[in-house]
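agent> Task received from the user: take the single chain below, predict its 3D structure, and emit structure tokens. No templates, no multimer pairing.
agent> Plan: (1) validate residues, (2) run structure prediction, (3) serialize to tokens, (4) report one or two observations.
agent> Step 1 OK, no nonstandard residues flagged.
tool_call: predict_structure(input=
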Amino acid sequence: MRLYVGLVHYPVYNKNFETIASAVTTFDLHDIARVARTYDVRRFFVITPLEDQRALVKRVIGHWTGGYGARYNQDRKDAISLVEIVASIEEAMDIIRNREGEAPLLIATDASRQKIRSISYMGARKILQDEKAVLLIFGTAWGLDKAVLAVADYVLDPITGRTGYQHLSVRSAAAIILDRLAGREESELEE
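)
tool_result: status=success, residues=191
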């Protein structure tokens, strides 16, 4: 499986659907890195053009991979070592292209069902099983800007619960989606 994950902080929407750059949340770094490590994601890109936010991420990475945190908690070190900070989705795509020798497919997530280029979990899982390089991106704040959705190869179907409530934290959404795409199937668990 050649799966990469990106947490996009720009361009995303605020609650008034204005395009913004959102702040990095350290809980997102820790929790999504741990989920990424669990599901064998190759890299977890934190995507923000903001220098102060990039500096924050670098401090967190440094603490858990080379500072006291690395000695204190090896499991956290393993997870945080997957984090790579980049300024844009394009930069993440270029890094993957250089590592994999091909352009990755870009699969975006969104809380609403898209009419164009939508893909089911089964369809996305098949792409991963076919060993295609994939960058799966999650939006922060109120979701990815429509310009990002427009350039994505696919937009993953939304998570649908039992109600119309569609406001999961990105950490929760990432855990659910990665389990659906990269989790073991029942037949694999029986072995």
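agent> Step 4: summary for the user.
The longest strand covers residues 2-8.
agent> Done.
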